[in-house]
Putative gluconeogenesis factor
Amino acid sequence: MRDPLTTRQPRIVVIGGGTGLPVILGNLRDQNVDITAVVTVADDGGSSGIIRHYVNVVPPGDIRNVLVSLSELPNIEKDIFQYRFDTNDDFFAGHAIGNLIIAALSEMKGGIFDAVQELSEMMKVRGHIFPASNEPLELHAQFSDGTTMTGESEITGAHKLIQRVWVEDADSDDEPEAVQPVIDAIMNADQIVLGPGSLFTSILPNLMISNVGEAVRTTSAEVVYICNIMTQKGETENFSDADHVQVLNEHLGAPFINTVLVNSKKVPDEYIDYQRWTEMSTQVTHDFNGLRRLGCRVISSDFLELRDNGAFHNGQEVVRELLNLIGQTNY
């Protein structure tokens, strides 16, 4: 039986990847909560993809950003970790220093999981960071036309309607599994947070690891889905918020989302710079009745942050609502 919340910090597990995860974690870091971040390891793009190809380690990019978001180091030290070499540097072009450090420590420690635990201590991380798998995973997709494709960037770039995704171990025929601390964190949590992030390439790759999906489906914790503000080209074009939840339920074979946070604020016409934010398509439409039919509690509010001609989640407002859900009202 769990110890009562009155005697300990509430345990929040945030699952995802991409740029949305650090926004939530950075705003949770200084709150009176016990944070665990479960981070996708199926990325194959950019510096992460190049390092994975040559060194054969779990892609480090998402993990690097999460380490920085939860680190209590001075900004200058975090900036060094995040520094990306100029494209004019032939050998290091485009690589982030943090990616190289994670790759090196993964080799030294014999796997990404122990490497991240070591780095978490070095970087004075507040909370826990768990790679979803200790092995590099490949993301696979089947499209509505019956064709299949492998690789996160290739799947997104295909601009075809995705029917389902799954993950496979990149180095063996073994079924991917998360290490036990990941499962224990999910089963002992008070709140599970999914997103915000790309539905098919940031959130579902974690849930498609069989024991992770089973744990999220059976945990007694409240499962909260932070629905995206914008649809994503090549993944969720023309999706409503209910469509996002329906896809999650279909992949796990049961309705498991308890609460959905949806943005109610309209993105101003002509505001988005689609040349810069190439993955953004249109604003996610709201289908309240559809969400209720899926058994979800719906929390609709202004979660919008407009900056740099793009539409993003306001991390402070999202975290305020997450804390309200677990009775933390002093944010």
